[in-house]
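ok trying this again, last paste got cut off
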Amino acid sequence: MTPEEVLARLDAPLSLRRRVGYLAVGFTGLTGSGLIGLLWATEPELPTRTSVAFAALVAIGLCWAAFGGWAVTRRTPLFARDRVVAGWLGVGAWLAFSVGALVISVVRHEFEPVLLGMVLVLGVLAGAHLRAARRARAALLRRRTALAAPGEGG
């Protein structure tokens, strides 16, 4: 492959497979937040903490729906920007979950080792995904710069 061919592949928009995947992410987020919102609307006597949890879940679902729509509508190369945004959404959802878990533990005055373990595992996974996405984006940008530099063939 010549440097021009590699650059052309790097500059291509999302593949059909990725577009379908992001459509699925968007529709899943929209469906999940819609179903939770419907349940929330039809149950007027819910405890406050349940309403707060439903609001957080609806917000997370809408964020994923917006992300799916954003990724599908991009006509320019993303250079793994989509992966970085997804990583940040994962970290944000983990933070919301962690704060909720902390509030529940404080209100109940109980320490739940299983909940702490779940928070830690999810945090490690979210952080690892974000780190991998940022490294992949940096590598793609370095490669694009190296290939675009005059006189350097890769």
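PB: full thing came through this time. The chain is about 80% helix and 0% strand.
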